[in-house]
Amino acid sequence: KTERTQPVTENITESVYAAGIIKAKNQYQVFSTVNGLISQVLVTEGDVVKKGDALIKVLNETAQLNTENAKLAADYASVNANTDKLNELKINIDLAKNKLDNDALLLQRQRSLWAQDIGTKNELDQKELALKNSTTNYETAKLRYNELKRQLNFSAQQSQKNLQISSSVAREFTIKSETNGKVYRILKEPGEMLNTQSPVAIIGDAVDFLLELQVDEYDIARIRIGQKVVLNLDSYKGQVFEAVITKINPIMNDRSRSFTVEAGFVTKPPVLYPNLTTEANIMLQTKE
User: What mean pLDDT comes out for the span 101-109?
Assistant: First the structure.
């Protein structure tokens, strides 16, 4: 049989093919900043979390002991805990001030007597020397008080900083979410060892999704932000959805010789999951 076809009037479109995957918005891999043994996993896959929610706890006996030790040191070095030392020097200042006032009064009296030719020059000199000694002792007492107060304030602030550092280190043993979203995958179990090189979970937005497409280096020069994208998904065969280019990553993958392009949905399926595969056409131009 001879195959026959009839001409049909349609629009002509030029497009660039791109394959890719679906990703949750703000999707990221959760890493630990410390090494250790997982003591507790606080969430399960599919849980919705908020920014700052605890995800995983790491065994941290040493960090906890360091924090407690820093708290003891901070309490011991606090100014309130050393008020007795300050009060003792205050008493010394008061005594030195009373002695100074008394010696000043005695010198004044001795000068009055000397003006009346009563007493000796030696007695007047002794009273003047006593006043100078009292003045020196009073100033020294004030300097000691101020120096002790300065040292106590410095020790208290230093101890508080050490406590903050220890508390910060201890908090790092609780891995927390950096964004609002859903826990899509837990990669570690209780009892496993953690390190800073391997991810422990995957978290992303629970509602908003985007397309991550790979465009060949020969076509990337023709891609622009705002271009229309039509795509299909293996999970929704026979259906076509629309998106629009929102971002072009400006560096090429050396292995695949392609660029990563992101697109946001205009029309999207009712249910989406991260890592679903898609095939898309980025529309360059259309002619009637």
Answer: 87
